[in-house]
Amino acid sequence: MKFLLLLAVVGIALWLFKSRHRVSGPKKPPPQAKPGTPAAGTTPMLACAHCGVHLPQTDAVFEPAGRAYCSAAHLQAGPR
Ligand SMILES: [Zn+2]
User: Could you tell me the distance, in angstroms and rounded to a whole number, from the CA of residue 64 to the centre of ligand 1?
Assistant: First the structure.
């Protein structure tokens, strides 16, 4: 029974130490996104040249001229 109590006390002490250490740690300033460049981890959004809907660059369909479309159907329909 004493062993269990000791284990609980040690566990609580460790938990308190960890939570306190996390709060008092050095605060890093949030990374500032440079204007004009997409932030890390985000996908640039493009507008479909036909219907104008915005979609992630990874989902866009590109024509050889470089225009982006939301789908192959709009790629075939061409710019509006
Ligand atoms: Zn479209």
Answer: 16
